[in-house]
Amino acid sequence: MDSQLNEWPEPIVAVQSIAESGAALIPECYVKAIADRPAAPAGAAGKDLSIPVIDLGRLGGSAVECRATMRAIADACREWGFFQAVNHGVDADLVDEMVAVWREFFYLPMEEKKKLANSPQTYEGYGSRLGVEKGATLDWGDYFYLHLLPNCAKNFDKWPTKPASCRKITEEYGRQMANLCGTLMKVLSISLGLDVGFLQEKFGGDEIGTCMRINYYPKCPQPELTLGLSPHSDPGGLTVLLADHRVSGLQVRRGADWVTVNPIPGALIVNVGDQIQVLSNATYKSVDHRVVTNAAAERMSVAFFFNPKCDLPMEPARELVTQDRPPMYRPMTFNQYRLFIRKKGPMGKSHVDSLQAM
Ligand code: OGA
Ligand code: NI
């Protein structure tokens, strides 16, 4: 393992503890360069745009409805890299319980949470920074990161024991999310003109990986100076985000603009990650997104990541490579790929772009 990843380069301060101290100014290390602040660029177009909303229940409808829905999903993944899924089949009570137990976790005393403090080796546990670059500008957010699959990567020692129901609820939520992603993988495979199981198989079949990051963005006294999460694309395959519908914060890149997502109550936000962009030879896009903070309300989100088996080389599917469309990326395993991210933290789309075949 890389020695750089043994420990954090600076002592970790939970953003929540800064926010709760009542400071009127944010510490210097959270102040972004002017070009990186939320107001710039002030995209006019961004105001009227929104990511597509897709009713997944229609996949189980008539053949015509099903085809139209598959087309809508594929179009969203090509054009936006994002959509909101309604009627997604995930148990609504479970979703509410998931939010409730994790809110309770973040409300535990700091000493309790710090017992599960994470390191950059695996990132599992309670953390407040991404990347190990000394002197980096930090994001205004804390998180809890955990692995669900494969089973050998699931380490209950690093999971909260309080609240007591956290484990069971999180595992069941993870199972339902993996099912949803399994369905979407089929839709995306068919829409590429490939066999229904194509993408899943390329991901390692039953040996896929799943993990979760529960994000907690405290109120921020100077939201115009910082970000809750810097621009990044998600490194894995697919992401399903559960976001608070009362507090917006997620923004998706659209050309030079940032389009704010206004979550529909009960909806889940789905986005394409870098590995699907690579496998699909850039047919589906893994799109930059970021989180803005606000002074009025804290915000929580649950990001579920559906990833390939970590030691398989990922490269554009041969079936999608033609004379006119040569392979866009060099092969790399997900293990190698996420090592970059663990070191550097969120850096827009520079990781996937660096794989571009010369
Ligand atoms: C992520 C992410 C967005 C949000 O965790 O990768 O993009 O709204 N989260 O918290
Ligand atoms: Ni993300």
TrEMBL record:
InterPro entries: DIOX_N (IPR026992), IPNS-like_FE2OG_OXY (IPR044861), IPNS-like_sf (IPR027443), Oxoglu/Fe-dep_dioxygenase_dom (IPR005123), Plant_2OG-oxidoreductases (IPR050295). This is Flavonol synthase/flavanone 3-hydroxylase. Its cofactor is L-ascorbate; Fe(2+). It catalyses: jasmonate + 2-oxoglutarate + O2 = (1R,2R)-12-hydroxyjasmonate + succinate + CO2. Residues 207-308 form the Fe2OG dioxygenase domain. It comes from the Eukaryota. GO terms for molecular function: jasmonic acid hydrolase; metal ion binding; oxidoreductase activity. Keywords: Iron, Jasmonic acid signaling pathway, Metal-binding, Oxidoreductase, Plant defense. The keyword Protease does not apply. Belongs to the iron/ascorbate-dependent oxidoreductase family. Gene3D superfamilies: B-lactam Antibiotic, Isopenicillin N Synthase, Chain. GO terms for biological process: defense response; negative regulation of defense response to insect; regulation of defense response to fungus; regulation of jasmonic acid mediated signaling pathway.
